[in-house]
Design a protein that fits this description.
- By secondary structure, the chain is mainly beta.
- It is built from no helices and 11 strands.
- The strands form 2 sheets. Strands 2, 4, 5, 6, 9, 10 and 11 form a 7-stranded mixed sheet that branches. A 4-stranded antiparallel sheet has the order 1-3-8-7, with no helix packed on it.
- The termini are far apart.
Length: about 130
């Protein structure tokens, strides 16, 4: 059974930082591109960041470039998202996803339909 479990969300103030963690089980982690998305109330799922199999190629949405950083630890089957200089508009549920890559180290999933597995999300709330 594939499981992705996000953690690390919470209530913070504008300008604060958080580190989100997504721990994966039930699949061969090193064969999947991993990504982070978020969904605010009344809005669609928004791509934030993704990373390739080996963790050497990160890719970011323009809206978070320079504030968020994605990384992964294949020895721990875990992907991280560092959130810095948080703003009230960052308030949302944050989800991690796993995208199958057919073994390509250059593949990075950038759209929700590319992801085969999802976690249940972790809430991030940023007060002004």
């Amino acid at each position: 059974q594939v499981q992705l479990v996000e953690s690390g969300g919470g209530l913070v103030r504008a300008g604060d930082s958080l580190r989100l963690t997504c721990t994966v089980s039930g699949l061969t982690f090193s064969q999947y591109s991993m990504g982070w998305f978020r969904q605010a109330p009344g809005k669609g799922r928004e791509f934030l960041a993704a990373i390739n199999l080996s963790g050497t190629i990160p890719f970011y949405a323009n809206s978070v470039k320079g504030r968020f950083a994605i990384s992964r630890d294949n020895a721990k089957d875990t992907v991280y998202l560092q959130l810095d200089n948080l703003k009230p508009d960052d308030t949302a549920i944050y989800y991690c996803g796993a995208a199958p890559t057919q073994g390509s180290n250059y593949y990075i999933g950038r759209a929700p339909h590319e992801y085969a597995h999802w976690g249940r999300g972790t809430q991030v709330t940023v007060s002004s």
